[in-house]
Amino acid sequence: MLDYKNRENNWYSLETAEVITRLDTDREKGLSETEARERMTLLGENELPRKRSTPGIIKFLKQFNDILIYVLLLAAVITAVLGHYVDTIVILLVTIINALIGYIQENKAEKALENIKNMLSPKAQVVRDGERKEIDSKELTVGDVVLLAPGDKVPADIRLTETNNLQIEESVLTGESVPAEKCDEVLEEGTVLGNRCNMAFSSTTVSAGTGAGVVIAIGADTELGKINQLISETQTLTTPLLRQTARLGKTISIAIVVIAVLVYLFGYFFRDYSPQELLLSVIGLAVAAIPEGLPAILSIILAIGVQNMARKNAIIRNLPSVETLGAVSVICSDKTGTLTKNEMTVKTLVVKEQEYEVTGSGYAPEGDILLDGRKIDPNKEEVLQNLINCFEFCNDSSIRKDETGNWVVNGDPTEDALITLYEKAHLRENNIEK
Q1: pLDDT (tens digit, 9 = 90+) per residue, 363-414?
Q2: Of 3, 272, 334, 402, which is the active-site residue?
Q3: E strands of 17-144, at which residues?
Q4: Distance of CA 207 to CAs 182, 196, 324, 383, 427, Å?
Q5: Active site includes 402?
């Protein structure tokens, strides 16, 4: 049986027939369900590897990893040794409540991230046993025949065997904002990744046309999986907020301990208090001086920031990262604009005798058409009306609202911008069906 784990990496330079032969599949019938299950057992599911999740008890105990909390716990131990159990219970309750708040708030961010991951798990159209089926992308395996259509997210790395005006938006991988035109031709050995037109890569999006191909890599073996591996190897740095908080905690703790010792010595030598009574008083002063609510307050404030960003589809895994983002003063980006939303918007319309301005941005059909700064009705401007109608009649894109109320378009970015303009003009009720 073919060793799929050690397959080569030059599929783009092979003839389609040779690709089919080497992957032991069928271009028309695809894999059988039995063979697909066997390969899934051998290769695993089509998912990026995830770090082993930290047990809940460990996450909770990490909330106590703070020098201020250490001082409180030391005070609890001393009061317990002295037999003042009520004081011990009160101090422990303070530390436990603080830890619970931090644990709950950080879990909210983790759950929000998991929900987004579940939403992004696409379906895949495959051919198995000669029949077209829709399956979860994680059930794909090497050798599966996949069918692609506009709006589909490519579920794995695929060697294309058939293309019909197929265009794929690959900005997530290459940074290029313009969709790449795909082909099914054999390419020369050594062709760079961005020029491999006979390949479709995992997590890119079909913007126009249709196509079919054979899965040649899944999960960690995909190009996206390699990027994921590089990211996982990066060094983790402590954020400025955590460094400042740690320094503050150390400074306060040292000051409290020093003052407590001085107060104890003063009371013992100059005021003739009993050692036990004096010790309890000093512990009470130390506990009162410790800002035990500081970690909890920081967690709550950062969690509010995380939730606000989540509502805008920006998920932050670690709470302190919110503060780090807020401290950013310069963002460096290459000329392709990989940090933009990759959305095109019509801003100006020019006809023979007039120039119109269009307000609004992105793909939400919200905005007006202005002439000399005044809002106009396109239904009363014949030339403008005909022009905008052409944008809709000669357009393969579609626009709709998703479950969250956000506007979503499927198609070429230029056509997406034109169909959005058509919706802004409110001409649909006056037009016949295409």
Answers
A1: 888 889 998 889 988 888 888 888 998 888 888 788 888 777 778 887 777 8
A2: 334
A3: 123-128, 131-136
A4: 11, 17, 35, 30, 25
A5: no
